[in-house]
Amino acid sequence: MSAAPIRFDVIIVGAGQAGVPLAARFAEAGRRVALIERAHVGGTCVNYGCTPTKTMVASARAAHMVRTAGRLGVHVGDVQVDLAAVVERKNRIVTEWRAGVERRLERAGDRLTLVRGNARFVGERLIGVNGTRYTADTIVLNVGARPATPNVPGLDRVPTLDSTGIMELRALPEHLIVLGGGYIGCEFGQMFRRFGAPVTIVHRGQHLLDREDSDVSVAIEDVFRREGIDLRLGVSASTASADQGGVRLQLTDGTAVTGSHALVAVGRVPNTGDLGCAAANIALDRRGFVTVDDAYRTSAAGVYAVGDVTGGPQFTHTSWDDHRILFDRLTRDGDGSPARTRAGRLIPYCVFTDPQVARVGLSEREAADRGIACEVASMPFGAIARASELDETAGLLKVLLDPATERVLGAAIVGIEAGELIHIFSTLMQAGASPRAIVDAQAVHPTLAEGVQSLVMRLDRFALT
Ligand SMILES: Cc1cc2nc3c(=O)[nH]c(=O)nc-3n(C[C@H](O)[C@H](O)[C@H](O)COP(=O)(O)OP(=O)(O)OC[C@H]3O[C@@H](n4cnc5c(N)ncnc54)[C@H](O)[C@@H]3O)c2cc1C
Q: Mean pLDDT over residues 53-61, rounded?
């Protein structure tokens, strides 16, 4: 690497959910941009995350709907899931979306250069890729994260799957063990149960999805148990060993579980181990995430980081929002208005189990931990007329109100289309509006959204007298 480095105005490392739009928009704004990517453009979301999982969740829901159609008076024969066909469909959709990302990059024109290869810092604002060095005054890291491996003795000597590998299985496991009851473990656990495999979820927390209030977690646990998923909660794997071509996990409560396949879904670690951050004076936290301030600045001048690698909530929409905040900050010409930062943003999210689990703002537990006073209303999802007509009654709705300002502090919904319904609350919260706005409105009957209005009217101040 002795020749002079190739200079760009902006270098972006990682073609993820922030990197792609940033690269395209910087190029369209006249900057010379290099986007460095070592795998597929589109990053985790398109290739190994949201797109493939939600495509497969749709197949699993179809199997479930057909299998349980008798409750609606519709009788069908045996349900056969052709996992190879499910995976083919998933691959087709992923390929289409990836091609869309490639077209987006091409549309940005000649100022954007896509460099294929692994980027590693070799000095301050100096990056090596395949023996060539690149430099720029502005560098943005969007390198994302990958599945974590838990420290369970023996686990490295038995065959395991991660969230990417499990989506390549062409035949159903005889028994799937899922290690981890967070959102990835829950989505895959239910998906493979509905495909027809026996499933055991082992989770060290007392409840699945244990960032949520316990009533929210219990609602989803009830559904999982009814569907025949074996839940081992409050226990961890103490050792792992091979067992007849499969895996045996010894658990901390003295029991053991044996499966033909084991999915490890215990969190995600940042892709910084081989990035050479020390050579560029880019500080990492103790877990390896890049340390950034509210304006995405790292400890190295001119170097920024966005998306999952900053250690914040790891969602596609958050990474995408990072891109637009950073782009505004780096291109605005100082009209005096304050630029947005990453601080204090409202970050709604949804777990795509069935029923879905969605939340925005504070949970009841978080409000209590922070000593924040709130009025709380909750109701069963089955109290919604539309839900009972559809026979989709599992779940609940919950809202937290600030008594002083009459603003929504948070909301959680477990129910079908919870990921859509939660936007009613996030829009109210983003607008700083009182939920009185939806009390006075007419809600279309019969819809699920009508239930959100009913929920709010369970708060004393909005109740009909
Ligand atoms: C199974 C699964 C399901 C998910 N489901 C959802 C969901 O439903 N909704 C949701 O909001 N989020 C979901 N996520 C999370 C979501 O995918 C991520 O939060 C999102 O992709 C944002 O990531 P990012 O932009 O930070 O980086 P990524 O999308 O991870 O992109 C990082 C890119 O950087 C590249 N890279 C890394 N290191 C280097 C290097 N040294 N040199 C060159 N290139 C490099 C990688 O190859 C990758 O392409 C899911 C994740 C998983 C794993």
A: 98
Residue 139 beta carbon below 6 angstroms from any ligand 1 atom: no
Look up residue 175 and give its two tokens.
């028994």
CA of 320 from ligand 1 middle (Å) equals: 11
CATH at residue 371: 3.30.390.30
43 shares a domain with 28: yes
Evaluate whether residue 10 is within a structural domain: yes
**Residues 288, 437 within the same domain:** no
Q: What are the tens digits of pLDDT across the range 243-276?
A: 988 999 999 999 999 999 999 999 999 999 999 9
447: Cβ contacts below 8 Å, ≥ 6 apart: 386
Domain that holds residue 296: 6-146+269-331
- Cβ-in-10-Å burial (0-12, 13-18, 19+) of 309 comes to buried
Name the domain count of the chain: 3
Preceding amide of 446 cis, omega within 30: yes
CA distance 417 to 358: 9
DSSP label of 272: T
How far is ligand 1, taken at its centre, from the CA of residue 99, in Å?
17
Q: CA triplet 304, 310, 313: central angle to 5 degrees?
A: 140
Question: Of all atoms in ligand 1, which is nearest to the CA of residue 314?
Answer: 19
Which protein residue has the closest C-alpha to ligand 1 atom 17? 45
10-20 pLDDT, tens per residue? Answer: 999 999 999 99
Q: What is the pLDDT of residues 392-416, one digit of tens each?
A: 999 999 999 999 999 999 999 999 9
Ligand 1 pocket member 277 (CB < 6 A): no
Q: Alpha carbon of 92 to those of 63, 96, 386: distances in Å?
A: 20, 6, 34
What CATH number is associated with residue 172?
3.50.50.60
Q: Find tokens 């995600």 and name the residue.
A: 268
Mutational test site, ligand 1, from 12, 40, 44, max ligand atoms within 8 Å of CB: 44
Instruction: Look at ligand 1, atom 47, and give the residue with the nearest C-alpha.
Output: 39
Say yes or no: CB of residue 121 within 6 Å of ligand 1. Answer: no
Residue 342 domain flag: no
- Considering the domain architecture, whether residues 132 and 48 belong to the same structural domain is answered as yes
- What pLDDT does 321 receive? 98
pLDDT at residue 1 above 70? no
Are residues 132 and 280 both part of a single domain?
Answer: yes
Task: Identify whether 67 is part of a domain.
Answer: yes
What pLDDT, on a 0 to 100 scale, did the predictor assign at position 73?
A: 98
Q: Is this prediction's pTM over 0.85?
A: yes
Of 242, 266, 290, at which residue does a domain stop? 266
Structure tokens at 125: 């604002």
Determine, yes or no, domain membership for 348. Answer: no
Looking from the CA of residue 39, the nearest atom of ligand 1 is 47
